[in-house]
Amino acid sequence: MQGRVALIEIGDSSGVYRERAAEERRAAARATTAELQRTHLQLAEHYERRARELELGMGQSSRSAHR
Questions:
Q1: Sequence-ordered alpha helix ranges (H) in the chain
Q2: pLDDT at residue 57, as a whole number
């Protein structure tokens, strides 16, 4: 994952988010510091939450709830 940025496009399926979450969890396992590990785990949780929102059809409504 180093040196690579994976952009997630509007309209992507929940599978894209689940794949990205798995990548972040693998990166967390390789992290050399606790801070870096925490960052990767937080990103993984964010992507997993977004995947669940998409699966439940809450894609747009959840954004307005966060404001």
A1: 14-30, 34-55, 61-65
A2: 85
**Domains identified in the chain, total number:** 1
Residue 3 located in a structural domain: no
- Whether 25 is in a domain gets the answer yes
The amino acid that residue 40 corresponds to is H
Report the alpha-carbon distance of residue 38 to residue 66 in Å, rounded.
Answer: 22
Which run of H or E residues covers position 65?
helix 61-65
Q: What is the pLDDT of residues 17-56, one digit of tens each?
A: 999 999 999 999 999 999 999 999 999 999 999 999 988 8
Q: Is residue 52 part of a domain?
A: yes
pLDDT at 48: 96
- For 20, the domain range is 14-59
